[in-house]
């Protein structure tokens, strides 16, 4: 499997925050999801990928090259969908398209208008009159209309209605079917990633907790529920995170933990469970 993106030992210091020794690959033909709580460093990492923020040390290669070597060539191959609007608010969809399309060598008018029709976007409507969901649809149409090889998205499903969110995820699956493209998208809506992602990277406090195949990650942990008395028999080193009530508990444990009580309930955790309990436990998950 070819890596479209290779991040090695990335360091970036900001006021009261830093990205610390990030190592991450994004593979061609797959969808890689980036999860983490607010302020964990997801957007900062994406900005470094896009060369919108200069790194202090380490290396980022996209398509085998760094931005220093070939930033224009790299950006021609990237479709970017950001969680905020950076278009001209007083201009229409059509007018914004005319401006943006000039920057892309492989701009495809037919594809763009096909996406407008699919997303039900009126081309003469001004950006400031669009809902947040419609703005995200327009961003997606722009990102896909110059045939990018890598699509980078920051919270792309935020503000979308449930019907279009489902359609949006189907579009992402279609994009990677030819196995030549890759998608990297960050979100706090982990259920979306559970439906479409092949790989998951989890960042917390500026550090990469893990990055691996989704199913491998889900198999590393077990969600356990039971009476508080059973906690006495659980080795605390196996506990990733814990939530206690007056009579019982629920916790995320390393899969290597052996269930010793018949009355304990154990379930396969969701990505949300893993993120929640890792952050709550304030300790990094490990590969077991």
Keywords:
alpha/beta, 13 strands, 9 helices, single chain, six-stranded mixed sheet, four-stranded antiparallel sheet, 288 residues
Q: Which helices and strands occur, and which strands form pairs?
A:
Layout: E1 3-14, E2 17-27, E3 31-35, H1 42-49, E4 57-62, H2 67-76, E5 78-81, H3 93-101, H4 109-119, H5 132-144, E6 150-154, H6 162-175, E7 182-186, H7 190-196, E8 199-204, E9 207-213, H8 214-218, E10 221-227, E11 239-244, E12 248-254, E13 265-267, H9 271-281
Parallel strand pairs: 3-7, 3-8, 5-6, 6-7
Antiparallel strand pairs: 1-2, 1-4, 8-9, 10-12, 10-13, 11-12
Helix pairs in contact: 4-5
Account of the 3D structure:
It is built from 9 helices and 13 strands. It is α/β, with parallel strands linked by helices and 288 residues long. The protein folds into 2 domains: 210 residues, Rossmann fold (3-Layer(aba) Sandwich); 63 residues, no CATH class. Helix 4 runs antiparallel to helix 5. The longest helix has 14 residues. The chain is globular and about 65 Å long.
Brief description of this entry?
The chain is α/β, with parallel strands linked by helices.
């Amino acid at each position: 499997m070819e890596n479209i993106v290779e991040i090695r030992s990335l360091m970036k210091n900001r006021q009261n925050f830093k990205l610390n020794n990030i190592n991450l690959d994004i593979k061609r033909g797959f969808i890689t999801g980036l999860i983490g709580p607010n302020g964990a460093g997801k957007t900062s990492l994406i900005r470094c990928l896009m060369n919108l923020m200069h790194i202090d040390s380490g290396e980022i290669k996209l398509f085998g090259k760094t931005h220093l070597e070939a930033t224009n060539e790299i950006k021609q191959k990237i479709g970017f969908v950001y969680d905020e609007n950076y278009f001209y608010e007083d201009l229409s969809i059509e007018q914004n398209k005319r401006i943006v399309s000039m920057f892309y060598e492989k701009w495809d008018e037919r594809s763009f208008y096909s996406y407008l029709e699919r997303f039900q976007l009126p081309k003469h409507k001004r950006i400031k009159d669009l809902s947040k969901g419609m703005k995200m649809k327009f961003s997606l149409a722009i990102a896909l209309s110059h045939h990018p090889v890598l699509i980078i998205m920051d919270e792309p499903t935020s503000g979308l209605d449930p019907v279009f969110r489902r359609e949006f995820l189907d579009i992402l699956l279609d994009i990677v079917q030819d196995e030549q493209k890759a998608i990297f998208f960050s979100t706090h809506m982990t259920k979306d990633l559970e439906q479409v992602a092949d790989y998951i990277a989890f960042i917390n406090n500026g550090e990469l907790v893990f990055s691996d195949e989704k199913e491998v990650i889900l198999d590393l942990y077990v969600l356990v529920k039971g009476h508080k008395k059973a906690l006495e028999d659980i080795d605390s080193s196996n506990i990733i995170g814990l939530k206690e009530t007056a009579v019982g508990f629920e916790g995320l444990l390393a899969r290597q933990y052996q269930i010793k009580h018949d009355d304990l309930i154990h379930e396969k955790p969701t990505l949300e469970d893993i993120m929640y309990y890792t952050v709550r436990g304030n300790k990094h998950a490990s590969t077991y």
